Amino acid sequence: MGGDRARRLTPADVVVVGEDLPGLDQASFTAFVHESFPHALLILLRERLVPHEVKAAYANGAADCLPTSCSTDELLHAIRQAHNRRMTFARGAREAVVVTRERT
After folding, report:
1. Computed over its alpha carbons, how large is the radius of gyration of the chain?
2. Residues 6 or more apart in contact with residue 31 via CB below 8 angstroms
3. How far apart are CA 10 and CA 33, in angstroms?
4. For the chain, how many structural domains are there in total?
5. pLDDT in tens, 4-28
6. CATH assignment of the domain containing 10
């Protein structure tokens, strides 16, 4: 997907991002989608999971990074886990706001 087509994306719950993006690198695309659609879960597929590259992917907004060789079940499990982490974080953030308000 070229940069022009990427700019016309519509919101999605989950975006699975492969490494071969004509006209874009995976890191730039991930950052763009995360900025444009912060609620979309970005799951990156990588040929090799190099620690510093995975860390950079998370910094760009990826919810998870998996090897391209992962099975469909592993991909679905990663999506479920990313969703569960987001829900847990959101619940914790809401509870923190309630506690803060009660103290003031």
Report:
1. 16
2. 60, 61
3. 10
4. 1
5. 555 565 667 899 999 888 888 898 8
6. 3.40.50.2300
Name the band, by pLDDT with cuts 50, 70 and 90, for residue 102: low
Domain that holds residue 10: 3-103
- Compute the distance between CA of residue 13 and CA of residue 22 in angstroms, rounded to an integer: 23
Q: Indicate if the pLDDT at residue 37 is higher than 70.
A: yes
* Distance of alpha carbon 79 from alpha carbon 14, whole angstroms: 8
Residue 3 has pLDDT above 80, yes or no: no
Contacts of 75 (CB under 8 A, 6+ apart): 16, 43, 66
Kindly report whether the global pTM for this prediction surpasses the value 0.90. no
The partner residues of 86 in beta bridges, in order of sequence, read none
Q: Cα–Cα–Cα angle for 65, 70, 39, nearest 5°?
A: 40
Cβ pair 80, 62 in contact under 8 A: no
